[in-house]
């Protein structure tokens, strides 16, 4: 039985959640073979690749997700996080200037929260430099974001 794109994506998400990374990767790539710009498949594959340490490859998929659907705050936050992890923080600055035009306050708040959460995750892994950058980026999107201000110290 042939799966629809959405069924394949959902099965990939389920496999990813269950720790079946090879199966999840296969399903995400199957979706992308059919629809190369599918934003959720690009983002989820980026998350998977980041989890297994393939930062540069993950960054490319996050970029495709943002280009396909720039209105998803998590896509932008994941892309910026991957740029920070790959020591390409300046590209993150450029991305903020380019993508963040004409967004409402709720969008900015969601991106700030996602970046702050990514910073907390990096800090727990003792990656203090990347964590600092992510808190900074959170404040670029929402300058009065108390959690990011607190995390910066």
Q: Please give the largest β-sheet.
A: none
Beta-strand content: under 5%
Instruction: Label the structural class.
Output: mainly alpha
- Rg estimate, integer Å: 16 Å
Q: Tell how many strands the DSSP assignment holds.
A: 0
Query: What is the chain-wise order of helices and strands?
Result: HHHHHHHHH
Mean pLDDT: 89
Please, could you describe this protein's structure?
The structure is a single chain. The chain is an all-alpha fold and 153 residues long. Helix content is 78%, strand content 0%. The protein is built from nine helices and no strands. It has helices spanning 5-17, 21-34, 39-51, 55-68, 73-85, 89-99, 105-124, 128-141, 146-152. Helix 4 (55-68) runs antiparallel to helix 5 (73-85). The mean pLDDT is 89.
Topology:
Layout: H1 5-17, H2 21-34, H3 39-51, H4 55-68, H5 73-85, H6 89-99, H7 105-124, H8 128-141, H9 146-152
Helix pairs in contact: 1-2, 2-3, 3-4, 4-5, 5-6, 5-7, 5-8, 6-8, 7-8, 8-9
Primary descriptors:
0% strand, 9 helices, 153 residues
